[in-house]
Design goal:
Layout: E1 3-12, H1 16-23, E2 31-38, E3 43-45, H2 53-56, E4 61-71, E5 75-85, E6 89-97, H3 106-127, E7 131-136, E8 145-149, H4 156-164
Antiparallel strand pairs: 1-6, 1-7, 2-3, 2-4, 4-5, 5-6, 7-8
Helix pairs in contact: 3-4
């Protein structure tokens, strides 16, 4: 089975805590495993020990969180979130099994993808994210990209139709 990825590109690190704690509410979700490295203390940490994501990813840093379930407009199970940041910007990757979206009847798949895409469009606007990529892992390859949410596309219905045609 293949995995799908959602990549929030060039995310502003100053907004990471708001996304993680307020938008996604990760602190109240069931975390299966996680790993962060604290540059200050030189120690490995779990997500539960992290009080400030921006701080732990500074000056540069990465971390990952494996969740039992996550809401991104729709419910997704077994989601791995990878945070990778330089001094100011970074990518946030959500990786999950393909059958979390593409699982039932064709109409249901289309509906699930549509709900996910519109949630991501709102997220892009709220956090001023330049581009959101959805596709098969690795989603950045031309053959695996399903949809790119950017400032150019206005009709996502048409883009979703292309995926299922």
């Amino acid at each position: 089975m293949d995995n799908l990825e959602i990549i929030l590109t060039d995310f502003n690190k100053r907004k990471i805590d708001k996304l993680i704690y307020e938008e996604l509410k990760l602190s109240i979700l069931k975390v299966k495993s996680s790993h962060f490295y604290d540059n200050v203390s030189g120690k490995d940490m779990d997500f539960s020990q992290v009080k400030n994501i921006e701080e732990i990813l500074s000056p540069k840093g990465t971390g990952n969180i494996f969740l039992e379930e996550l809401q991104l407009g729709i419910s997704l199970k077994n989601v791995v979130i990878v945070l990778s940041f330089d001094e100011q910007y970074g990518d946030i990757v959500f990786n999950f099994p393909e059958d979390e979206i593409l699982k039932d009847k064709r109409y249901d798949n289309k509906l699930r993808l549509k709900e996910l895409v519109y949630y991501l469009v709102d997220l892009k606007k709220s956090y001023d994210i330049p581009k959101v990529i959805v596709g098969y892992e690795p989603a950045t390859d031309e053959g695996t990209l399903l949809i790119e949410i950017n400032n150019m596309i206005t009709n996502y219905e048409k883009e979703i139709e292309k995926i299922f045609s």
